[in-house]
Every structure is written in structure tokens, then in C-alpha cells.
Request: fold
Amino acid sequence: MRPVLPFLHSVFASPLTQLAGVVALYSLPGFFFLRNFRVTDPDIWWHLATGRWILQHHAIPRTDPFSTYGIGKAWIVYSWLFDIFVQLLHRQFGFVGIVLYDVAVRLAITIALFHLVKTLFPSVWYAIALTAMGIFAMNLILGPRPGMLTILFTIIELNLILSARRTGLTKKLWLLPFMLLLWANWHIQFVYGLLLLGIFATLPLLPPLWQKTIAAREISFSKQLWLVLLAGFFATLINPFGPRVYSTVFQYMHQPKSYSLIVELRAITFREPGQFVALFLVLFAAAAIGWRREKNLLWPVLLLLASFLAFRSVKEIWFLVVISLCALSDGWNVKSLSDYRARIPRSQTITCVWVLAILVVGFRRYDVSNAWLEMQVAGHFPEVAAQYIEKHHLPGPLFNDFNWGGFLIWRLPELPVSMDGRTNVQGDERVAHFSAVWNGKPEWATDEELQHANVILAKKDSALAAILRLDPRFKLVYDDIQAQVFTRR
Reply:
């Protein structure tokens, strides 16, 4: 058996084998997604509708134009740039454009995460393994949403900061204010970028454990970060709403009921394999910090913060994964890794060609087409019921389910919805009340919107639908496998 080990060593140390590993890492997340490609995100629809509205009116809405509750109320469209982008994609390519964006997001995040880990711990196979675990753990939250740019930009920001801290070259840090300018017009979680800058700028000023003095290099680095943070903060104010964009951040922070009702905002349930992978990563990261006996508080603080955010809401599991990978990879003595350092042939063209070829094969093999996607959308959302409402010109007010609100905003633009996924418009109390109504709790009998509704579009298996079928005030006019339409008698 002994001759096998040197052979395996030479195989894994080969630049061509490493290149094959990197190509597989980059292409497989997108390829596996194409095996079960879908456009089922309930929020993508109101983003498409918002982009359509902006392009039609050549302006950004200042009040909500989509819901009966929100009409006339202020609405901060913090993702307006993403909304325009995704609508233009849809206009050009149809639903296939959304799939293209999804695949591109997975590819970009994988590349950025691999580069980050490889920079901290320059072993190709170590970086490939950890990146693959990280992408697997994040897989359930990846999709066609503006928040994917937050994941990508957070990884890029960590790469820039850690590289500057390691080399002392801080010029590239001044890319961050420009990145924050784009970020603040794309997704509300640009505050993560400011938060990371603040932590990296503050912690070097605290005396490290078991030491009484702070190195002059740390003080200089901290000053640079504070200047970048200040410039980045002012850059975020360059948006259509100015400093008011920050009010949405505080609004989301004070919505505890939404965190208990909306699936993606709930705490980690450990019902998915990726969630266990994330748990193992954070445990290994904590063990690595202890093994290295780190004197700096940076990774312990960031790991605690990321753990709090992720265990509070599964939507933030990506942040826990990224911080865990950094804590696992940073701070080791890597002088003994000469055999497995990055010796990949410096031909980005070869890598790009192979990755592109594999993804093209995926598109053709799994027949990604608008016709199939339209069928899929009709299977997940009430497309046929919406056609019935449209064909028979049923007048509003409309009363609809929470998860279908975004789709109806896009599909029936002339009929304002009663509820949708924009919790910054609908409010925490209102989301909780609607949940009670649709679950058939006593609130349904006194709900004013339901009492005044002329059209109710209900999920067939909902408690409210069962109640309305017995209520003499309403008439069932349409029924299919997933939706029912009621009108007032």
C-alpha cells in the first residue's frame, strides 16, 4: 500500500489536477442548480413589478403604488437598482434571464469565497474543500434576490481588509467606498459592510490579550480603516432617499413577529443538511481559535456576532459560514504547505472556457426554456386563477395570501393587493394579523379588509378558504388544484 501514497501525493500536487478541482468547484453549484432550475421565490415578483414601474414612469416611487394598505404611505425602495436590473433581464430574456442571474450569482460567490480562503490558507485542496462546504451550507438561501450582492460584497470586503492587514498595502481599501455606494442602492444590508469596517477599525485599538501595548502598525491600520469607514458612510448617503434609507434598517430590527412567522426569517431548525454543515464549521472555527491561542479578539467577536445573527434567522446563515471559514483559515503557520500551495496554471482563460462549457452543457441538458419556466411558475403561483380574474374583470378590493402578494403585484398590476412580502410597508403587526386571519383564528370574523373585499384569492388548503366555502356572504367562482377565487354575493 505504501507506493499508493506517493502516487496520490503527486496526483493531488499536480497543477492540472488542481485546475480540474477548481473548475469543478466553480461550475458544479450552477450545474446542480440547473438540474432543478426554478423561479419560485415569492419576492422576485414585486422586485420585477417595481423595476417595471420605474422604467414606465422614469422615476422611483416615493409612496407604495401596489397595495391598498400602502397607497399614499411612504415607501423607501432600497433595492431600486436591483429592481431595474432584474426587470431588464426579464424583458430581454424572459424567465430564463432570472435563471441566468441565479447561476451567475452562485458562480461569483463561489469564486470570491475560494479566493478569500486560498489567500488566508494557501492550500488549493483545503480551499476547495472549505469553499465547497460553505456553498453547500448556503445553498438554500441563494437565489435571485438583491441580498446575493450583500454576500458577494461582504466576501470581497473581507478579502480587501485581510489582505491589507497582512501586507500593509492599504490603497485597495479605497475601493470600499465605491463598493458601498453601489451596495447602498442595491440592498439594505449594506450596513453589514459598514459594520465590518467598524469592527476591524476598533478592535486593533483594544489591547490584545496577554499584552500591554498596541503595535504602531495596528494603530496606523486602524486609522486607515476609520477614514475608509467615514468615506464609505458618506457614500451610502448617495441614494434617492439620502439618510432616510437607514430608517428601514431600524424598522426591520423592530419586527419580532415577522421573524417568527416568515419561514426564511425564523431560527435555524436543523432540518436541512446544510444547516448541520454550518454548525460544524462554526464549531471547528471556535476550536481553531482556541488551538492557535489567539491573542487578538477579532475572530472571537466576529464569530459570536455571526452566530447570534444566524441562529436568530436562517437567512443570515451565509454570514456565519463566511466568518467561520475566515476564522478557520487565518492565523496559521503555512510555511510547510509548499507541496499543496496554489500552483494552478495561470491561465484564467482555460478555467473560464471549461466552466462556461460545463454550464452551457447544463443549460442544454436540462432544457432551460421560457416555456418550461412558465409551466413551473403556474405550478407554484396562482397563474390560472389570475387569468380568471383578469378575463372576467373582477373588481377589487382584492384579499390575498401573504406569499402570493408579490406575484399578484406583478401579474395583476391594475388590482392592488391587500398583503405582500414587503414587511417594511405592511408592518409587523399587520403581518401577524394576516397570519391569524388566514389560519382561521377568531380575527377573521372582524377583519375589515375581508369584510369589504369583492375578490378573495385563497390557497385551497388554507383554513380561511374552508371557512369561506361555508360563508353565505361569499360565492366560490373558481376552483383548481391550488387556488380558489371567491366573490361577494
Summary: The radius of gyration is 25 Å. The CA atoms of residues 402 and 419 lie 5 Å apart. The longest strand covers residues 474-479. The first helix runs from residue 4 to 13.
